[in-house]
Design brief:
Layout (H helix, E strand, L loop, with lengths): L3 E3 L10 E3 L22 H5 L1 H13 L15 H30 L3 H33 L3
Antiparallel strand pairs: 1-2
Helix pairs in contact: 2-4, 3-4
Length: 144
């Protein structure tokens, strides 16, 4: 397999073209088919990482009621891992709210609605974590 770069020696307006033997017949998308518009779906608007974080928060919420299990085997996850993840997620979501508000201040009005949605989602997730896990941490920290 050979690669060759074609460039005119005397033509300064020509850009180098990379010719790949396996890519014969493939063409690039026309410029008008590429869309730079704002995503329309809810999950696309908030982003993949935030969807995964929200799923992780939802998965951790019911684990607070499994704290009485003997920490053997899979029971280690709700007993030891979930409380640690909860604290990291609260701090991470608070940081995401901070960064979304900073980015929102620098965006045009059309983008502000996206960051407002992100801030509200993060706030709702933090509220759910505090409602479910708050009594657990209060009881844990008030032990002698």
């Amino acid at each position: 397999m050979s690669l060759s770069i074609e460039q005119g020696l005397h033509d300064t307006n020509r850009t180098p073209t990379l010719r790949l033997p396996f890519a014969q017949g493939l063409t690039a998308l026309p410029e008008e088919t590429i869309s730079n518009s704002t995503p329309t779906g809810f999950f696309a608007r908030i982003g993949t990482i935030r969807v995964l974080i929200a799923a992780m928060v939802i998965a951790v919420l019911p684990m607070v009621w499994l704290q009485d299990l003997e920490p053997v085997g899979w029971a280690v996850i709700p007993v030891y891992v979930a409380p640690g993840l909860t604290t990291f997620m609260v701090w991470g979501l608070l940081f995401d709210i901070l960064m979304a508000s900073v980015f929102r201040s620098a965006q045009p009005a059309s983008e502000c609605a996206r960051y407002t949605t992100i801030i509200r989602l993060d706030g709702a997730l933090i509220l759910a974590l505090l409602i479910c896990w708050g009594p657990f941490f209060v009881a844990l920290l008030s032990r002698p």
